Structures are given as structure tokens and as C-alpha cells.
Amino acid sequence: MTQQTRDEAGGLLPHDEFRAAGDAIVANIEQVIEGKTATVQLALAVLLAEGHLLIEDVPGVGKTKLAKALARSIDCSVRRIQFTPDLLPSDVTGVSVYNQETHDFEFRPGAVFANLVVGDEINRASPKTQSALLECMEERQVTVDGITYPLQTPFMVVATQNPIEMEGTYPLPEAQRDRFTARIAMGYPDSGAELAMLDGHGASDPLESLRPVSDASTVSRLITHVRQIHVADVVKQYAVDLVTATREAPDLRLGASPRATLQLLRTARAVAALEGRDYVLPDDLQVLAVPVLAHRIIPTADAQMARRTTDTIVSDLVHRLPLPQERRRTSYDTRPAANSSRAPYEPRRA
Fold it and tell me: Are the CB atoms for 55 and 229 separated by under 8 Å?
């Protein structure tokens, strides 16, 4: 059975078609965000992994631009929520309003009823309002007045936040952070990218002329493809060992949850697919460990006094944890060799 036939039967897409769709979205976003290819690719991987993205950095580095560019690159419903201290949970989820004509209550959907929800400066709202996103991010549904309303598919929350040291911010609750698949930082652009930004953004905003290059239906097909990317048992065990290491680390008082293990593997599948592979490598998990795990863990007081960040702690754990030593090709791709166009992967020795 050919790969194209498997696609028609609901299986894997042709690699060329998948990569073309992914490259088109990345290139479209890079018309607005210069010099941040790796960040853009990770944002797309989170979308295809059916996750949610948290973008954290200081003001003015393009957090909202990235979120809006990703939203505009896909022709689907998009809502933006500006999180402020006076925002109410009902503004996010929706509210039942009494209709004078029908003499009954009718539900008016909130901003979360969209394919892509852009939450700007999420940590400037109170924890009570932030918690309004808990159900919809995990269960993709909203319950108001005892009635449950399903959300659209695909569904993704892209939230931006400033570091908690900034004035007027609230820390995200642990349950809220754990629902974000990955946290990324934009960082300052290099001098070349900043110079290009002056030329490209000086006269007009390129975001205004950005046009969609994909749609909700195509993204749903890409997500289906990602779900079927092969993960060998040895790679699954490596993912479990990596997350378990955070729970046993002496510098941490709260390690990563089982949800973190699941989302780490889902994101690794998306990264593998975007790189043209139909199987996951241990390297994928190593690259994703910091963005997927670091925001979920809590360091001890001693680690904080020593100024050890969660990023540093996770990075050290990755370097200390031995890689799988199995060198046979079937360790990672157990299907016949004809299904793979790449050379077998040989893991590095720890």
C-alpha cells in the first residue's frame, strides 16, 4: 500500500505535502517576525501537537506579533482577549443573559469560542480570571450554568506574558502553567534582524497585509498526520526517565506532571513530522525538554537563592541523563526500510 493510499484511508500524509504546508506557514509568519525561525517553528509544532503556547518576555520584543501572525496565517476563527485586572471570567467563557422576548436565558459565547485564542498579557489579570481557561485548555469545552459547550477544532490558546518581576503582573497558577504545552522566549533580535525590521516595519505594519496560507481543514489533516508519527518503546522510556528526573532532582520541590510527559511526546511527534521524519528521535526530546518542562517545575528556596533558573536545572538534567544505548535501526523505526528515506539514527553516547 503506498503512502498516498494510506492518506486517502485516513493515515499519513505524503511527507512532501506535509512539509510544504508547514514551510508555507513558517515563511508567512517570518514576513512579520524576522530572525526567529526556531521560535516560529516551535510555535507551529505546538499547534500541530494540539497544545497551547505561552510566550514570555519583556515588553516590546514581538510576543503579540508572533501570536497574531500565527493566527492570521491560518484562515480560521480568531479571537483576542486583552487580559486586564478588571477582566471577569464570564468575559472569557461567556454568560447566560435573560431574553425579554423569549422569557428565557440564552447563552452568549465568550472569546474562547474560536479556533485560535490570543491572550495578550495573560498575567495582568487576576488568578481567578486566569483560571477561567483551565477547563477549555484541557478538555476543550466550557461549562456555564451547568451546561457544557464544546469548542471548535482545532483549538489553541496562544498567550503572552511579561516576567513576574514587571510591575502589575500576577504569577500564573501552577495548574494554569501545566496546561501550556511549551513556554518560549522571543529574546532580542540580532543587529541584522533589527535593521531589517526598521526597513520592513518603518512605513507600515506587515501584519496588516498578511494573508492566510492555510485553513482549519488543512491544519486538522496535519494534526491527524502528527498523531500517527511512530515512537519506539525505547524513546517512550527515555521520555519517562527525563520527566522522572525532574521529580527526583534535589533542586526542585515540584517536578513535572504526567501531563508533561504526554505533551513532550506529542510535541516531539510534531517536530519530527516538520523535519520530514515519520519517527521520533531521542534528540527531539532533548531539544524540547527546556521549553516543555521548565515552566512546570518549581525550584527549592536554596536553588532560588543560588539564582539557578528552571531552564538551567532542566538543561543540566538533560545532560546528565544517559541516552538510550541501543544502536539497531529498529530501535526508532520498526517499520520496513522502504518506508523511510533517511539513514538510520545512531544515538550519541552520554
Answer: no
